[in-house]
Records
---
Amino acid sequence: MDERLEIELAALRPKVLSLARKFFRSSGLDSDPEDVVQDVLLRLWEARRQGTEIGNAEAWAVATTKNCCISAWRKARRGTLLPLRDETVAGYTPAGSLEEAEAAASVARALEKIPPGTRHLLQLRAKGLSLDEMALVTGRPKGSLKSSISAARKEMLKMIKTQ
């Protein structure tokens, strides 16, 4: 890594960490602010590596930190809005729960057969990353990512159907 970029990232780290901690504290999220710090610094590194001209790295890092924190908050909020299932919900049966467990096991077995690189793409997508974010992380074009994910999903469906 370029020594100048390394120094710049080290200088930005405390500000990004402080901002993420304040956000998580005020929003009541249990998320680890270190995850946001790593994500923001990785995005900056990737942007610089790709030749993106960033005039004010601190302003860019602050804006990106806010966006990452808001994304984490939205993901957590989406998770809490999903209905919890218990015996009182109409249509719920213990057999249905068993079927869901078997389906999850089938998906896990199919995932194990997918090549590690493709599995990583599926995991990034499952975490809620957009194609733009994935392109920054992986350095691959969005079209390539979209094709790889689509092909992997089709392959997994075939594997699950044959199990």
---
Amino acid sequence: MDTRIYNQLLTDTQEYIKLQYKLLQVKTVKQLSQITGMIIAAVIIITLMIIGLIFAAIALAAWLEYWLPMWASYLVISGCILLVALTVFWCRKKWFIQPLETQLSDVILDDTTPLDHQKQAAEYQSIEQQQALQQDIHNIRQDWILIDGILQLIKGH
């Protein structure tokens, strides 16, 4: 029996595990980068929209003061904001949750990014290592069949 086959199996297994770990690292970095970028963009956009809405509400209230008392114009704007908030709450699944789920699943389940080249290289090497492992396992099975045959011959004598 040849120990080179077992050593090769061990080497191939180690290399395969290292490549799988590298692939996991690349995927993790890619996904974290995309998720972090989405979070940062969302925070900036929401902050700017809130500031813009505050100024628009103040300007609209000032404009309404020509026809209504100041307290009434601010009350009208507050009522409109409340209606918008309720509409957003009622439509949150359709407007926010479902698109966010789609974006995150695209990111987590393998979207294309600049890290794809590294990922593809790791996957290709992983496939090669997997094939080498399968060949090594096949060779070992053949050795065990031979050993079993020899043991059967010895027991028969």
---
Amino acid sequence: MTEPTRVQTGAECADIPLPVVKLNRWTLVVGIMAGLALRQPLVTTALFLILLPVTLFGQKASLIFKVGKLLFARQIPTAEREDHRLQRFNNAIATTLLGLAQVAFVLGLPALGWSLTLAVALAAGVAIAGFCVGCFMYYQFKLNRYRLLNS
């Protein structure tokens, strides 16, 4: 399964330009790898705090989206788009895992904390390569919910 993309129409104004989606993924990968290389869980805390508002309130609260709009201003009008619901679902998974990692670090379980953060980095890295794990999970969730509620 590849990344779901589409060209923006008037009804899809909230969809996220693909360059911004990729910036989000690269931010996670680079941030987590930097935290691991420095053996500094506070880097993952910063990533958690960056993702938490966007998970709770959507793209209007996204620091990465705001930076991406500035960096990719020329590309955005013609860029392919990702459904904002997929991005929010993916960010919710990343935020949950990073939040659980913070709990693990505080409880003195660094191996668990780093494992959870590496799961986020792995998923983001695989998505950069073309297979969106979170998108696949979202599709499976929607499909099974439909089957359950319409059986």
---
Amino acid sequence: MDRAYVKLMRWGLMFGLSVLLVAGFYFHAEFYALGLYPLLVIGGFVTLLVVLSFRIVMTGEIPRGRPSGNLVFPLGAGNAVANGGVEMAIVPQRDEAPTVGRVVRAMYPTGAEFGRLLVLDATRKFLDDITDEDARMAGYNSAQVLLSDSEMRLRLDVDTFGTLVRFRFLGKKT
């Protein structure tokens, strides 16, 4: 039901934009009196706004540009990230954490990209202070399991801190 509502709203917005575009043709005749250059500048700007509006309505998001970094996930965690089971990554202190609001590449250790992520939050925390909820968001059953995981132990030193990067999966790379 919720998905049908969103689709109906998008189609309604597209219809509204289409009506606005057709109304523009009616007022377009008035612009001829201003001359060619104002017609090109104002018409080009209005057309740009309409095209961007259609893009936002169809995708449901504002375009964010190229990815600005990488988050590397173990081979088994990639599917969990894509399915929404993992919403957080823990980045070691020695690695640079991505900036909030940026899009980053989701990658396997082999270097293969499997999707794009929008960084929602980046919080620095001592690794001993990681809660069970933080660990569950990162794909572990508890904080104890996270800290005892052999792959995580190789990447992290529990006496230091790391960055907890919360993200939203945007989709597969295009």
